[in-house]
Amino acid sequence: MRALVYQGPAKKSLEQRPIPEIGASTDAIVKITRTTICGTDLHILKGDVPSCQAGRVLGHEGVGVVHQVGPSVTTFRPGERVLISCISSCGKCMYCRRQMYSHCTSGGWILGNTIDGTQAEYVRIPYADTSLYRVPDDADEEALVMLSDILPTGFECGVLNGKVRPGGTVAIVGAGPIGLAALLTAQFYSPAQIIMIDLDNNRLEVAKRFGATSTINSARGDTAKEVMKMTGELGVDTAIEAVGIPATFELCEDLVAPGGTIANIGVHGAKVDLHLERLWDRNITITTRLVDTVSTPMLLSSLRANRIDAKLLITHRFRFVDILDAYETFSHAADTRALKVIIEI
Ligand SMILES: NC(=O)c1ccc[n+]([C@@H]2O[C@H](COP(=O)([O-])OP(=O)(O)OC[C@H]3O[C@@H](n4cnc5c(N)ncnc54)[C@H](O)[C@@H]3O)[C@@H](O)[C@H]2O)c1
Ligand SMILES: [Zn+2]
Ligand SMILES: [Zn+2]
Predict the structure, then answer these.
(1) Which atom of ligand 1 is closest in space to residue 267's alpha carbon?
(2) Distance (Å, whole) CA 305 – CA 313
(3) Centre of ligand 2 from the C-alpha of residue 41, in Å
(4) Distance, CA 279 to ligand 2 centroid (Å)?
(5) What is the reported pTM?
(6) Is residue 57 pLDDT above 90, yes or no?
(7) Which of 43, 224, 236, 247 is placed for a possible disulfide with 171 were both Cys, Cβ 3.0 to 4.6 Å?
(8) d(Cα 169, Cα 237) in Å, to the nearest integer?
């Protein structure tokens, strides 16, 4: 089979690999039909993710057809269409029993990280019964790919942790695919205001189309002041950080209203200042989370009922043989205006 292989920092190639085989009795082999590229794959290529070693097939998102199942798999049969979760969960360990699948003691985020991933013609999925979701025949495959990672991430780490509520005020810092996924799913709760903040005017335009009530280009530098003006000098009930750098987390500290929540989504590689000298008496909550994908069944139902238009996030489509071009397009998002790229296999 063909597979996109990480070759160490800044290097990747399309290679021939053997089709993966069932290793444990709980495994399934899935034939991929559609996959995509995540910002995290770019982080790996920058050498930011030491757990991912050279030789690894990348990718942790995708939809496919069950090709083979191990003898202990009871929920899925060959030929069934499935959605692959970016998080593998055994369903049995202490963390899985608490629905913290991301911290599964023998799973978590392993696909395209410590085991071979979905940017290939076939992938081995451990704990298939609890890591795959059956997809209805009439479901749109491209939309489903958005459910492997980015929609649950925006929803769980941003909207649920941020306690978005009817009539509330929300600011989302970062209008990349994850920030936009938070924007789409925040609207389940009808907040009064959703203010989207980014440096990229194109992405802010997209955010307006996705339902942002206002947008701010933070390059201008007076973002906190503008948000205060928009919220009657209160700040926002929910400040969602969807970038992953100190400046944007500190901006959230400036934006949060008394009693509000800062919900961090971004992956941070550097320490951040916590201004307790200003925040100690403001009754705020700060949350962090690695996506658990516990909301996937709910998001699948919402998608089927047309309550959420996940396809809005898709800007480009490629064939698998052109996956290197897909990486080129995705990694130059400011010029290409890429959000999510679909790769058809
Ligand atoms: N917690 C989790 O489980 C989880 C899961 C997936 C991704 N993530 C993280 O979420 C973050 C967002 O992911 P993404 O794919 O949308 O990333 P992205 O890089 O596509 O988007 C980030 C956006 O932030 C904007 N930005 C950069 N600097 C800014 C600044 N100073 N002020 C305002 N905006 C700024 C960029 O213009 C861009 O639109 C990343 O850190 C990613 O690693 C976390
Ligand atoms: Zn991802
Ligand atoms: Zn587990």
Answers:
(1) 41
(2) 18
(3) 7
(4) 32
(5) 0.97
(6) yes
(7) 236
(8) 5
